[in-house]
Amino acid sequence: MDWDDLRLFLAVARAESLSGAGKALKLDPATLGRRIARLEQGLAARLFVKSPQGYALTEAGQRLLVHAERAEAAMAGAAEELRGVPGSLTGQIRIGAPDGCANYLLPQVLAAICDGNPGLEVQIVALPRVFNLSKREADLAIAVSRPEAGRLTVQKLTDYHLHLAASRGYLEAHGAIDSPADLRGRRMIGYIPDMIFDKELDYLAEIGVAHVPLASNSVSVQLNWLRHGAGVGVVHDFALPAAPELVRLIPDQISLTRAFWLIRHADDGRVERLNRFADLLAQGLRREVVRLEALA
């Protein structure tokens, strides 16, 4: 077995199909299928079971996956050692994050990291869901709750705060909000209830709001509704400097605290490049949350 065999195996395991893996590898699916069959024959073990849903790992495939991912991390680490200027980060890194963090924190934090490391390329995947690092949807992910399963390393990045907010125009048109009782009858803005992918995002339920007439799975859409005077909603304090039309409401009575967590595949701890990037990201994100919340 050589690294190229493991590389093809990993692609099929992550894509769960020959066509998806072939597209990622720029390899004909039929050729890929023959390579996988030859690998199975060489190992005298069946690695995949084909079903209408695609290619699923067998027990033997699951065992091989652990070793293949370790080999991948070792190859990445070796390549990094031989590439670029010593001490400088190079190559491509993809980070997945919820869209509030991706829109209002990561752009400036990552721009600063790239300024100090000109050979670095960074991709932000902003999606309202949990990322699958085993399938290499991203090299690192930021989440709003600590995962309880999987071969992952988890690091707390920072706490952040959220408050109710509305535009000055909305308050002038519909009256001030001086207590939680004043929320009755107000048009609320928040997440689509059945698309809340993490319980930590169910802000309105926590403060006793059951009905959400204006809802989106995007933090940015919610913020823009608020900016245009459409109603009342919960906003990240770090996003408020980007929306000067908004004011916090009853912060001494309703205040929420959440945390960001940095999640990495367990085997990536051997990749020095990702270790250094994770340190810079954590430091930059903490500083930026403190700076922006002070302006809110």
Automatic annotation (TrEMBL):
Residues covered by the HTH lysR-type domain: 1-58
Q: Which UniProt keywords apply?
A: DNA-binding, Transcription, Transcription regulation
One BP term from GO:
DNA-templated transcription
Q: Tell me where on the tree of life, at the top rank, the source sits.
A: Bacteria
**Which InterPro entries does UniProt cross-reference here?**
LysR-type_TF_proteobact-type, LysR_HTH_N, LysR_subst-bd, WH-like_DNA-bd_sf, WH_DNA-bd_sf
Q: Which Gene3D superfamilies match?
A: 3.40.190.290, Winged helix-like DNA-binding domain superfamily/Winged helix DNA-binding domain
Q: Name one GO molecular function term.
A: DNA-binding transcription factor activity
- What PANTHER family does the record tag this protein with? HTH-TYPE TRANSCRIPTIONAL REGULATOR, TRANSCRIPTIONAL REGULATORY PROTEIN
Entry similarity comment: Belongs to the LysR transcriptional regulatory family.
Please state what the protein is called: Transcriptional regulator, LysR family
Natural source organism: Rhodobacter ferrooxidans
